[in-house]
Structure formats: structure tokens, C-alpha cells
Amino acid sequence: MAVNCITYVDLHRSVASDIQAELEAAVSSLTPASGSGAARNAVGKLLRHQKMRHPLSVLPMMVHAIETGNPGPAAPLAAVHVLWWTSACYLDDLSDRHGTTASDTMSQDEALLASVLSGTVLPIRIVRSLPVPPAVQVALTAEVATGWAVGTEGQLTDIDADAERATLNSVIETYRGKSGGPYSMITAMAAILSGASDARVELWREFGYIFGILWQLFNDQEDILTGRNEDLLNGTVTYLLTCALEEAPTPRAKEDILGRNTAARHCGRARAELGRLLLAPDVLDRYAADLDAFRTEAHRLLTALGGDERHLPVMRHLVDHAARMLLQARPVPAAVQARQSAQPAKTPGAQLVG
């Protein structure tokens, strides 16, 4: 199957029906001969609720195409990618206390059980149905288990993160786990399925880690630009927040940021003022420079890998898309600057009442 695509979105359009067919086949397998179809229906509802905003399900097909020239055989892994993230995103909503119910027609208990099936049972069933040698099935199954272990470790670290003790390196290590882990899982799986050498599988695994970091940085920016501000509501220690803390001109300014970060969970005014501090020019300059460094590393890995010249540019375009600097700087209001330099820092969480 020859594909001449400019972007990953173009490629996804051309293979979306194949991915959907794999998903439907996997979900249909949940109904035993004597069953009522409850499990199948629950997973179907969860898939409809947790739709991916960006068609990154095509990522394993891109890796397979770079290795072999043909994306088609990796369509089952694209389904694995969708199912894994459907489960992970719902569990993330629960941990953020946003997941009291998945939809008007689905209870929290139903969604939780569906997420277990979506993230674990169905990916294993897909792998076991592949027409590949048993050793390849074992290797692919191991990648699913590793992806869950690494991703969960990163998510737990994120939940326990303390902004006051966070460093840029510690946040990146968290991103490498919670986002890089699943992407490294799926890129390694695609490379294994393609028959790539062990050395190339490891390069693809590292590419997945770096791409996952880039995509998390992309998501962090989107969270602000869309006005969702879930990170501020949840008190998430993002890379942007840590850049602001690192760039704070004085200890008092740093304490001011920490205090607003605590208050932002409950106070709209605190969220708005913290949002303005995060968009300060010096903060975004640091963020943009580091974002570009990860972009450069992803391209370095793609250069080392090489591969099919029809499909490699599609992956390079995806890297550039993920590495865009979307946020625009805004000057910090003079009143906030004065408060940071002239007033003693208040107890975090007590400054503002929404």
C-alpha cells in the first residue's frame, strides 16, 4: 500500500477505516456465546466518550511504514494505541477527580470496569490474534506490560509532585514516564512487528520517550490556550510552572508563584494571575529553548534511524507539529511585580479567596 502523505493527519485519513475495523473486531470479541454483551457495550460507550483530540493512533503505522514501506500491518497496533489511551485518560480523570461519571448514560463503576478491559484485556487479545511467531507475540505482550508499568510510575510521581521541590529535570523524568512510557511502548511494538533489529527497536523506543515528552509539552500548552486550565485546577507541577519558578527573580517572587499555585485550585482570580505569571517573556523564552532542544533530539534519532524516504518526512512533520511554541508572552502586570518585590510572602493557599 503506497502512501504519499504530507502530514500525519493525511495518513490517518487514509487508514482510519482500517483502524476502526480493528477496534470493532476487538470490542466484538468481548461477547461470549452466552453473554449479554454488557462488557462490549460498556467499552463501546467509553470509546465514544474518550475520543482522542489528535489522531495519534496512526503513530505505530508510521513507524512500520518507515521500517518496511507499508503501514498496513500495524493497524492492529493503532487499535492498541487507542484502547490504551482510552483507559489511561479515563483513569487520569478519576485521579484528577473529574471522572465521577463518564457520560449521562454510563456510571462511574461501569466506566472503570470498561477502562480495565480497554487498557489491558483487549490489547493482549489483539496481540495474540496477530499472525506472527509466538516469540513475537511474547515480545509484544511484554511491551504492553512495560508500558503500563512505566506510565503508571510516571503518573504516580506526577500525583505526588511538590512544586516547591520540583526541578526541571524531575518534571522531565515524570513526563518521560507518564507520557513517554506509552509512546515508547507503541513505537517499540511497531518496530518489533516490522522485524527490525534489536538495536533499531531500542532507537525507536528512545524516540517514543522523546516524542512523549514533546507531546506532553504540547498538551500543557493546549490546556492553557483552550481555557480548560485543568493543570491549574489540579495543582499539577508542569514544566511551564517549574520554568516560572526557576526564572523567578527573587525568593519572594518564587514564594508568590508557589502561593498562587496553591490558591489556584480553588480561586479563579488566583488562576488568572498565575496564568499571567506563566506567560512572562523570560519564562516562555526558557520554555521555548528547552522545547527546541527536545525537537532537535527527536530529529537526531530519526536521522540515526533512517528508513523509507516516502514515510520518514511524515514522522518529521509530526515532530515539528508537537514541538511548536504555541504560547505567546504577556508582560507581567506592574501591580503583580510590585507585590512580588515589596510585600512579604504570605502563607501559600491563604492569599486569595475566589
Notes on the protein architecture:
- With 354 residues, the chain is mainly α.
- The chain has 2 domains: 1-131, no CATH class; 134-354, Farnesyl Diphosphate Synthase (Orthogonal Bundle).
- It contains 16 helices and no strands.
- α7 crosses α9.
- The chain is globular, with a radius of gyration of 22 Å.
Number of β-strand runs: 0
Q: Briefly, what CATH class of the largest domain?
A: Mainly Alpha
CATH topology name of the largest domain, in short, is: Farnesyl Diphosphate Synthase
Weakly predicted, low-confidence segments: 342-354
CATH architecture of the largest domain: Orthogonal Bundle
Shape: globular
How many separate domains?
2
SS content category: mainly alpha
The number of helical runs is: 16
**H-E order:** HHHHHHHHHHHHHHHH
Give the percentage of residues in beta strands: under 5%
Could you tell me how far the N terminus lies from the C terminus, measured between alpha carbons in angstroms? 57 Å
Task: Specify the CATH homologous superfamily of the largest domain.
Answer: Farnesyl Diphosphate Synthase
Mean pLDDT across all residues, rounded?
Answer: 89
Q: Radius of gyration, rounded?
A: 22 Å
Largest sheet: none
List keywords for this structure.
354 residues; mainly alpha; Farnesyl Diphosphate Synthase; 2 domains; 16 helices; 71% helix; 0% strand; globular
Write the layout of secondary structure elements.
Elements: H1 8-28, H2 38-49, H3 59-68, H4 75-95, H5 108-129, H6 134-160, H7 168-178, H8 180-194, H9 198-225, H10 230-234, H11 239-247, H12 251-263, H13 268-278, H14 281-305, H15 312-322, H16 334-342
